[in-house]
């Protein structure tokens, strides 16, 4: 698959999960288009009603009283008229307070598509190291490793705190907001500070000298190809393929890179089966590296097959599940459910599903009777060989989210598994996800993705509430490694494997 096709593929993913381009930019390119105070207040009130009635557990990290107060304060601060861009910022910041990574404020798909044709975005990927922003790109006007000091007179110092308020994450993960800003820096900069046809950049080169340069803005699709979802500018193809398999024969190591779970499960079976000898019931490698650092989730059913291959037997990951409402609330504003349209038939099926599986009324809503939901996630593809019993190394980062974070959490308890990298962006103990409803706010066209099912995992280690899964070895890239184009966590893992091999532990 070539890089051009990759860019188109993950732009479609962006349309479904990211919400950072203001509607006003694409309405005759009029950044000054105004929304009346009454219309803005009406959409904010509707936003609260949807969250309050339909979200699986909106008050996990903030009380209803506190959130209602924030809503009231946001409405009270509204001017008589407000640009659409400022409204989007207000609603995004309010949405951040729920601390749910699956609750996403976004704008109409047509407007997001229009963004890809506009040359108004900062062009280069950045790497954030100890709060400082460095250019992580070799083919631009600024040298690799240059430290950004200011962009259009906007100081970089303190920018992480401002931009983090526009991100979404499960709980209080310290890594996900940073990786979110990195991977979508051009859009987040636009959302907070505005569009520009060019950017005056003050920067410090790796040798310490300070310079200024005016760099041209680029279209959204080119910017995204450089830094969203998979870094296609990286040289090794495992970084920019959806999935990739390669071997390091000298270390008897297989590297399975999973940059998404939005993939055909047949690929997993065929690739892994090709490394297995059915006669001897042995694999042709001793160590397995599973790279989940860029994986923001997808088809949760793939976990079943991967677990059969790695752990043997069926996956048992029981959870306590709750919904707040057995009916789809405020359906007049609904535009989609789990990627499908919101036809009467689709809504009826969703209602029936909730009534079938969530029957026990409680103070918080309705509890589900099923605990191991993976029993219902059967792709019809099962590993029939012997489970892999060698050493397994799982690479994680703040972008390891949703189903990918689930896999990291589940594998972390296995004795032959070592986690390397950063805290995951997905919650270790609980999260709200699964059935996803998409609403459209009538006055602004803003879309709101709301997860319906709150899930509290039962087989979890004792980690802090509201945090992700922590690695056994905390490894992040240093500035020196950035300059050397070194994949710090990956090379650290290979060193671990080499040390075990030298002592004959495999």
TrEMBL record:
Q: Which SUPFAM superfamilies match?
A: ClpP/crotonase (SSF52096)
UniProt cross-references to Pfam families, sorted A to Z: Peptidase_S41
Give the Gene3D superfamilies listed for this entry: 2-enoyl-CoA Hydratase, Chain A, domain 1
- Transmembrane segment boundaries: none
Q: Which residues form the Tail specific protease domain?
A: 255-452
Q: What is the lineage of its organism?
A: Bacteria, Pseudomonadati, Bacteroidota, Cytophagia, Cytophagales
Please identify the protein, giving its name as recorded: Peptidase S41
Highest rank taxon of the organism = Bacteria
Per the UniProt entry, the signal peptide is none
